[in-house]
Design brief:
- It comes from Piloderma croceum (strain F 1598).
- It is a single chain.
- With 311 residues, the chain is an alpha+beta fold.
- The chain has seven helices and nine strands; from the N terminus they run E-E-H-E-E-E-H-E-H-E-H-E-E-H-H-H.
- It has two domains: 77 residues, Ubiquitin-like (UB roll) (Roll), CATH 3.10.20; 196 residues, no CATH class.
- Strands 2-1-5-3-4 form a five-stranded mixed sheet, with no helix packed on it. The chain has a two-stranded antiparallel ribbon with strand order 6-7.
- Strand 3 and strand 4 form a beta hairpin.
Length: 311
């Protein structure tokens, strides 16, 4: 099931300030209306008293009419962010950035990653695309059990109180230890390529709009407007949590709609095939160090859970 996407509403949307700086951008698939777009802008902009105007280079102020925060779809094109009276404004962004994560899985076998088995038992298909699993062949080679919230950020997970929201009845050793971050309430089954796109925040699911799939960048027309498949999950204690989907959607906004968007880190060079190429200069500098620390925490997570469980 998916929503109907009108072709005339597909294309890139760019918002600039009066001085030509990019304030926000995203690829419109006919899914984002002005109400949702204003909500996204409020996530990334801390400046107050702003409004979005149509861009018109032929007028003295280079802007046309103000765009209302309604349910009319945002047309592709260029817009200007100004003061509510149409005068230039200095735009300040939130200091929050998207939560770092990598589209990789450690190639070291571990005993504690029960979430994979449990997710494959729960989900008969990719929950986004609907691609079915060949159950008779028990073939999950095209699928990956994908965390909604990254397990390497378990401190942030605890601070946000997500552990207390998990009602998964499985034994504590099967949900990632006391944090419960490996509960299948934090995991969905995805097609392999969509797993990589999910952890890179290329698209997200909005649980407050009927679980519709909203890509932030071009190239994802095949899943744009798809509805997350949850009807097969009768037990609410095994259902992915809305709070986690909502958190992931916010990360996508921070990653892609804050200014010109965050740069893409080339994980294939440094982490391709499950290895860690320490000779790559991608690990240099502050950003490289952050990626290295994340990858180490991610790969050691299961070993830590084993130790905590006394395995």
């Amino acid at each position: 099931m998916s929503t109907t996407i009108p072709n005339q509403h597909q294309g890139r949307v760019t918002v600039r300030d009066f001085y030509g700086n990019t304030v926000s951008k995203f690829f419109q698939y006919g899914l984002v209306d002005w109400e949702r777009f204003h909500s996204c802008l409020r996530t990334v902009i801390v400046t107050s008293n702003w409004a979005v105007f149509e861009y018109d280079e032929n007028t003295p102020g280079q802007h046309g009419t103000c765009c209302p925060a309604g349910q009319r779809l945002v047309d592709p094109g260029t817009y200007m962010l100004l003061r509510t009276d149409g005068k230039p404004i200095i735009v300040d962004f939130t200091t929050h950035a998207a939560r770092l994560r990598h589209p990789t899985i450690s190639n070291t076998p571990v005993k504690t990653e029960h979430y994979r088995t449990r997710t494959c038992a729960r989900d008969p298909c990719c929950l986004i695309s609907g691609l079915p699993v060949a159950v008779d062949e028990d073939d999950f080679s095209r699928f990956k059990a994908t965390h909604i919230f990254p397990r390497a950020h378990d401190v942030d997970w605890i601070n946000k109180g997500y552990s207390s929201l998990i009602t998964d009845p499985a034994h504590i050793n099967e949900v990632g230890g006391p944090t419960k971050i490996d509960s299948i309430q934090n995991v969905i089954l995805l097609r392999g390529d969509l797993h990589n796109a999910w952890v890179n925040y290329k698209f997200a699911v909005d649980p407050d709009a009927g679980y519709v799939t909203i890509p932030f960048v071009g190239g994802y027309k095949d899943i744009a407007g798809k509805i997350l498949k949850l009807d097969h999950i009768a037990d609410p204690n095994l259902r992915p949590l809305d709070e986690l989907l909502r958190d992931h959607f916010r990360q996508g906004v921070l990653k892609n709609m804050k200014g010109a968007g965050e740069p893409t880190w080339d994980y294939e060079i440094a982490l391709g095939g499950g290895r860690m190429d320490l000779s790559s200069n991608l690990w240099d500098g502050k950003e490289g160090q952050a990626h290295f620390e994340f990858e180490m925490v991610h790969r050691l997570h299961s070993l830590r859970v084993e130790q905590e469980a006394g395995s």
